[in-house]
Amino acid sequence: MAHILRFRKLCFLEPVKYSSCDKAKAVEKKSVETPKVENEDQGAVSALLEENTKRKKQKKQPKEWRCIDSCCWIVGYMCTTWWLLLFLFHCLPGNLPGLKVPEPPGARLKREGLTALHPVVLVPGIVTGGLELWEGKPCYEDLFRRRLWGGSFTEIFKRPMCWLEHLSLDNETGLDPPGIRVRAVPGLVAADYFAPGYFVWAILIENLARIGYEGKNMYMAAYDWRLSFQNTEIRDQTLSRLKSKIELMYVTNGNKKVVVVPHSMGVIYFLHFLKWVESPPPMGGGGGPGWCAKHIKAIMNIGPAFLGVPKAVSNILSAESKDVAFIRAMAPGLLDSDFLGLQTLEHVMRVSRTWDSIVSLIPKGGETIWGNLDWSPEEGHVCDSAKKMYQQHLHNNRKNEYNSKGGTSFRVQELTKYGRMISFGKAASDLPSSQLPVFGSEEFVRGNSSPNSNSSCGDVWTEYNEMTQESIKKIAENKAYTVRTLLDLLRFIAPKMMKRAEAHFSHGISDDLDDPKYSHYKYWSNPLETKLPDAPDMEIYCLYGVGIPTERSYVYKLSASGRCKTIPLQIDSSADGSDNGCLKGGVYFADGDESVPVLSAGFMCAKGWKGKTRFNPSGIATYIREYMHKPPTSLLEGRGLESGAHVDIMGNVALIEDVLRVAAGASGAELLGDRIYSDIRKMSEKINIRL
After folding, report:
1. What are phi and psi of 590, to 5 degrees?
2. Three-state SS for 431?
3. Catalytic residue among 118, 168, 228, 264
4. Which of 5, 260, 449, 500 is in the most buried spot, having the most CB atoms within 10 Å?
5. pLDDT digits over 644-676, tens only?
């Protein structure tokens, strides 16, 4: 009986929670009140107390802090802060002093009497259009017609590998992989917002609605931006549906011509359409000569990538841009393959190299447009505004000194060699061309490499796996590549992608546009290898932001070897500093809208199509409207009412006003013609091209 009572005492009395002081008092009290407890009972009690103490000490020991913990906390703080600011913004009353939201341009223009006149067609660019699932593998069978791209992106976190598999295209055909059908989201919702709270077309659509636009006279020409342009017609009949929609809007809106507003890559997609629609079937749409003159009033190209973008090159080479290089510099190892074996960039490269549309954005025009080893149209550009003012003052003083001394020469400052689009090592970007290695055919001979199987990291196969270390070192040793030699480099490191995509795109300059070969669709998206339609009353606008450092060329290096690395090249983020402040983190910057350099966005309107040229035989009027970037001054301005950034410009008040006025019937002359802040005219004068 005594043993049972002792057992009850241990089970029912000991678990009661005491503080450390209470425990001591309780033990002391027990020892006073029960002095006759046997020695074995006292031993059991003390052992139990010691065990409880040890357990609590173990619980109090802090866990080892890891890098991933820091990253998660930082992301958590940023998201919490953003949502808190957003919540406060929506909770604040609109009539508080100093917090009045600026009046939308559509409301102001409506008061002035502007109303909807010409139907409007919006053409989104790469990445910004939504994609939804129509058929998938078992891992996604419950997501029929759910967005895989654009929207909340929750599926990235739930099933990342399945998500990547469904966004990939077939590596041989550039079309759907077996058992997978992902299609463009239709309607205005396709690209109004890229993600919750991140607008693309939404503000422009809202302001168009304020002057009377709606579904019957406004249309979003959504397409699968991953495909080559002709493949959007072959697989989805997107071009045919766009042709029919424009004809329908023309008829149902009193035979009013359409105003087309393409953005980014959508600009060259619609350029392809202009040639396709008048070409005979089966390759073309069969509209015949005069279709564009009859149906289109104006094309207002926003952020046009007419001549390509350098960041397409870095994407193919190493799945990088300045942002990725910056993250690597700030948090070494975070995106590298050895970090948790995630192989983030390898996955991005594997998927993006199945998208033919990326090849459409490779710079066009060769060394004539983008420069060679010793020359480029942007030479003399200074990125640092303070240095720019100082150098201008210094140049004027030296010029005066030169004149006063009767022509005595003075030393000209070394200019940035933007023509070297890819340089391996900072020295290769600065050396005189005579000191650079000469290219030979043996540079681009692929060696045989055995597969690198490393199950510990779950290798992601890229085309780099098929190259030997010796062949990679040969292309990288102190060499610099211009746009001309760069194409050979890309064919060498991404042969499957380039072979497949170059059947749909071309990047040269035509010598004779009347050559029958230019009737093939591979030339239709290159403004230097195709003619504009015979539509003398049509107008073409180049609308883009300026005043933002934009990627122009890169300094690369070989990646450090690692157990999981399969991408041997990366931007050299340690390459920094130059006389004009244009080299930062391995990237040379020029003027532009943060994505498209001024040279690519403005040259065709400034020179290539200006007046009657062989590229513009009917003399279609062209206008340049530049928007000087001004960052937002307060939270109420969102991403900026005067932003010139590539996507944020879609909320620029001045740009919206220009689009609305033209849609309501205004001409380029009524907008007061060109508005230029950049050096695009000087750049264009330096380019020696036959017009």
Report:
1. -130, -175
2. coil
3. 264
4. 260
5. 999 999 999 999 999 999 999 999 999 999 999
Please choose, from the candidates 587, 552, 555, 553, the residue with its C-alpha nearest in 3D space to the C-alpha of residue 569. 555
515 included as an active-site residue: no
Candidate from 138-142, 457-461, 463-467, 537-541 with smallest mean pLDDT: 457-461
The CA-atom distances, in angstroms, between 326 and each of 79, 110, 569 are 20, 45, 16
Cα(278)–Cα(268) distance, rounded to whole angstroms? Answer: 16
DSSP string, 383-412: SSHHHHHHHHHHHHHHHHHHHHTTS---PP
List 553, 646, 674, 679, catalytic entry: 646
Residue 101 DSSP code:
P
Nearest to 583 by CA among 443, 430, 442, 446: 430
Which has the closest alpha carbon to 177: 385, 425, 350? 350
Give the number of C-alpha atoms closer than 13 A to the C-alpha of residue 612, restricted to the C-beta side: 6
* Stated pTM of the model: 0.83
Q: Which of 459, 572, 593, 679 is the catalytic position?
A: 593
Helix (H, G, I), strand (E, B) or coil at 136: coil
Number of residues written out for the chain: 691
- Label residues 229-242 b or e (16+ Cβ within 10 Å = b): bbbbbebbebbebb
Token pair 């998660």 in the structure block, residue: 72
> Residue 41's CB: how many other CB atoms inside 10 A?
16
Picking from 125, 258, 134, 93, the residue whose alpha carbon sits closest to that of residue 194 is 125
593 is catalytic: yes
Tell me how crowded residue 281 is: count the other CB atoms within 10 A of its CB: 8
Q: Please provide the distance, in angstroms rounded to a whole number, between the alpha carbons at the two ends of the chain.
A: 113
> What span, in angstroms and rounded, lies between the C-alpha atoms of 257 and 136?
41
Token pair 């409506």: residue: 110
Q: How far is Cα 37 from Cα 320, in angstroms, rounded to an integer?
A: 76
